[in-house]
């Protein structure tokens, strides 16, 4: 006999989106229950942004030692203790997870249900075999999981999902990493800088989040100069051989090469956790991946009282996006049927490679598509750019690599977006995201203060170039006294 539970709002999942939904829905005085199958702790804290940044921090430290002779500083030597690296990573990771669990523990016990939820009908959820939850509104916030080709299972324990790298007790000697996207680039470069031999393979020529081929091509060359990278690999064979994996692939010169690695790391994407909810009982409108189609302004699905938020929505798998979506979904679930459009921040994503990668506002691809669909109304867009190879502050730090491209609208002079690989890109991107959300024009952005010498002066150069392309200002004068060497 199942426990019969009635609620105003039922939330499936206690990750970032689920917790945000809980907070906003509970503030409206509604009876809210949250269902979690475990493990507790958000994807970000357990296997995502925090443990990856811990690995990157160790890698950056090793890289700085190697770079020291370029400043005339010669360290006595460099020894990387893989066990110590992973011990610190896991200790700090566990601390972050415990803070999330502490937050979950503040939810009243009567409002927490443990188990796997699946739909019985549009208003009813079955949780394992012990509970039946009936709710006026339901928020799906079930997150995502790593995905990979099923035939790779033949590799057994030599196959490691990107999530599982952080459970290692020591660093391996060699890996083949498949998937040069955001996760793959961060992991691959960090492991390389920690002394692991890395081969990185991709498909279709894509790299990271880039849609602007100029920036992507620049980034490809930078990473290829550091470790093996083939973004359109022809892998002919991959077989387990003892405690290693043997891989045959065709080189760019058309020659078959063979490598042996300790592990194959799959960083080949993530799959929304919606396939076990038995959504087929509901008749929801779904996309080609079986994910419910969602209104990005309200997080409402085709069934009005069912909402979707976070990584499960298959939109932008970022913590701040999951938090925004959860907040909107929880608020609308509690106020249903009187829903409203939620506030969404300007798009901002950052990849913590070196140099860092960032995307702000509308992507180059999105602007191209909009221009092609309605060239007269949007008047297309123009591009300004700057290289950081000769930028003053970047040269001082011996980190003078990078390319920033900024986009503007000719009719209004408004800043539209940017793609970049650059030193301190995390800070440049925040400035640009704030300007984008404020709907500033490029001319207004150029009235803001810029100190000297700072990396941000490179941003000013790109904006000046864009302003000239918009025909709203004069062209940049090479090394003019006004610009200074910081540009």
Automatic annotation (TrEMBL):
It comes from the Bacteria. Its cofactor is FAD. Its EC number is 1.8.1.4. GO terms for molecular function: dihydrolipoyl dehydrogenase (NADH) activity. Residues 349-462 form the Pyridine nucleotide-disulphide oxidoreductase dimerisation domain. It is an enzyme of class 1 (oxidoreductase). The keyword Flavoprotein applies. Belongs to the class-I pyridine nucleotide-disulfide oxidoreductase family. NCBIfam families: PRK06292.1-1. This is Dihydrolipoyl dehydrogenase.
């Amino acid at each position: 006999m199942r426990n019969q539970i009635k609620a105003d709002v039922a939330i499936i999942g206690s990750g970032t989106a689920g917790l945000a939904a809980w907070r906003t829905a509970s503030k409206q005085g509604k009876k809210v229950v949250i269902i979690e199958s475990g493990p507790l702790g958000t994807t970000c804290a357990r296997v995502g942004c925090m443990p990856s940044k811990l690995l990157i921090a160790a890698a950056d430290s090793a890289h700085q030692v190697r770079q020291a002779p370029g400043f005339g500083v010669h360290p006595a030597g460099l020894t990387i203790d893989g066990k110590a690296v992973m011990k610190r990573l896991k200790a700090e990771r566990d601390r972050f997870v415990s803070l999330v669990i502490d937050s979950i523990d503040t939810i009243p016990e009567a409002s927490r249900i443990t188990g796997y939820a699946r739909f019985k009908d549009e208003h009813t959820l079955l949780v394992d075999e012990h509970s039946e939850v009936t709710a006026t509104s339901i928020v799906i916030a079930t997150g995502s999981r790593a995905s990979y080709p099923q035939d790779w299972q033949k590799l057994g324990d030599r196959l490691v999902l990107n999530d599982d790298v952080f459970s290692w007790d020591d660093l391996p000697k060699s890996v083949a990493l498949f998937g040069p996207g955001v996760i793959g680039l961060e992991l691959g470069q960090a492991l390389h800088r920690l002394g692991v031999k890395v081969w990185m393979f991709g498909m279709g020529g894509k790299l990271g989040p880039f849609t602007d081929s100029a920036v992507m091509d620049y980034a490809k060359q930078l990473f290829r100069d550091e470790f093996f990278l083939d973004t359109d690999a022809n892998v002919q064979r991959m077989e387990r051989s003892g405690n290693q994996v043997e891989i045959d692939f065709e080189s760019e010169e058309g020659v078959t090469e063979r490598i042996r690695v300790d592990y194959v790391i799959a960083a080949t994407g993530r799959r929304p956790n919606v396939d076990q909810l038995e959504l087929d009982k509901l008749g929801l409108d779904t996309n080609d991946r079986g994910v419910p189609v969602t209104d990005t302004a309200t997080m409402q699905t085709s069934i009005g009282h069912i909402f979707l938020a976070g990584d499960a929505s298959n939109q932008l798998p970022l913590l701040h996006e999951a938090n925004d979506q959860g907040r909107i979904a929880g608020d609308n679930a509690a106020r249903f049927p009187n829903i409203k459009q939620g506030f969404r921040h300007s798009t901002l994503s950052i990849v913590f490679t070196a140099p860092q990668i960032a995307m702000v506002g509308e992507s180059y691809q999105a602007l191209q598509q909009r221009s092609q669909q309605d060239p007269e109304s949007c008047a297309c867009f123009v591009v300004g750019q700057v290289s950081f190879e000769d930028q003053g502050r970047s040269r001082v730090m011996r980190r003078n690599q990078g390319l920033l491209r900024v986009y503007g609208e000719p009719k209004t002079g408004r800043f539209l977006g940017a793609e970049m690989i650059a030193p301190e890109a995390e800070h440049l991107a925040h400035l640009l995201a704030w300007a984008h959300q404020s709907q500033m024009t490029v001319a207004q952005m150029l009235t803001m203060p810029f100190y000297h010498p700072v990396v941000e002066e490179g941003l000013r150069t790109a904006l000046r170039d864009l302003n000239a392309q918009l025909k709203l200002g004069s062209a940049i004068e090479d090394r003019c006294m006004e610009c200074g060497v910081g540009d």
